Backbone:
């Protein structure tokens, strides 16, 4: 399993892939933080006025990262779906199974590598979002003293865990579609189409669905359930159930289907 993890990191650590993904998540995090700070004194997307007093609270430092948590989750989904799907289309999986015939052990090593990769990306995004928030806040009249207090540091830690958990939930969806469709293009396309337009459309037509659809629940978790219909603990439990079902389906398909290419 350790050998599989290291082998996966050979692919994930390629300069173009690693630094391309890193640049994307860091840019998204910086943009989220900057736009959030610039929105002080104006109304946000939901029509709520963003004030300097509100942003000066301990949790204000993570507002920028939470604002773009959907995009960070999409990165986790796309990376996982593309990596797993490519293993089938490029014949990599067949060669790996010759060296490691224990399929579930092989899959576990791949998943651990992807988990550490997503965690590294979210860590970089968090650092950038926090740094950008501190840099822009004085310009908008936001007091940052509470941000580096004990409460502020706790909010940074909690926000990081929430966004990471949400991104790993999206990555689980990417794992499922990658194994189901066995093609990076098809897996990424279907995964994104489901997580973004389809779920958003369904939840807009029938609002109670947002409390049950997995991608919407991941968004709820990433923001600490602030402003959402479903509570934080409830969202977490429902996401765990979804992930358990998705992983179970993935394990069965990965273990039982023939690898022909």
Residues:
């Amino acid at each position: 399993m350790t050998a599989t993890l290291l082998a996966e990191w050979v692919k994930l650590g390629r300069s173009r892939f690693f630094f391309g993904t890193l640049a994307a998540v860091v840019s998204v995090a910086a943009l989220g933080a900057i736009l959030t700070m610039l929105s002080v004194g104006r109304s946000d997307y939901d029509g709520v006025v963003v004030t300097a007093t509100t942003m000066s609270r301990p949790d204000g430092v993570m507002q920028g990262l939470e604002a773009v948590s959907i995009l960070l989750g999409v990165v986790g989904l796309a990376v996982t779906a593309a990596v797993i799907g490519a293993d089938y289309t490029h014949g990599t999986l067949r060669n790996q199974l010759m060296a490691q015939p224990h399929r579930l052990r092989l899959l576990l090593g791949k998943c651990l590598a992807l988990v550490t990769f997503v965690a590294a990306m979210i860590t970089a995004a968090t650092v950038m979002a926090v740094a950008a928030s501190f840099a822009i806040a004085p310009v908008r009249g936001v007091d940052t003293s509470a941000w580096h207090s004990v409460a502020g540091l706790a909010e940074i830690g909690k926000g990081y865990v929430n966004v990471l958990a949400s991104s790993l939930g999206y990555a689980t969806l990417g794992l499922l579609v990658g194994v189901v469709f066995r093609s990076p293009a098809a897996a990424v396309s279907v995964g994104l189409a489901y997580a973004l337009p389809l779920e958003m459309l369904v939840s807009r037509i029938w609002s109670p669905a947002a409390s049950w659809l997995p991608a919407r629940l991941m968004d709820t978790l990433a923001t600490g359930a602030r402003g959402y219909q479903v509570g934080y603990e409830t969202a977490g439990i429902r996401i765990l159930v979804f992930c358990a079902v998705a992983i179970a389906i993935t394990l069965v398909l990965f273990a039982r289907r023939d690898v022909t290419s």
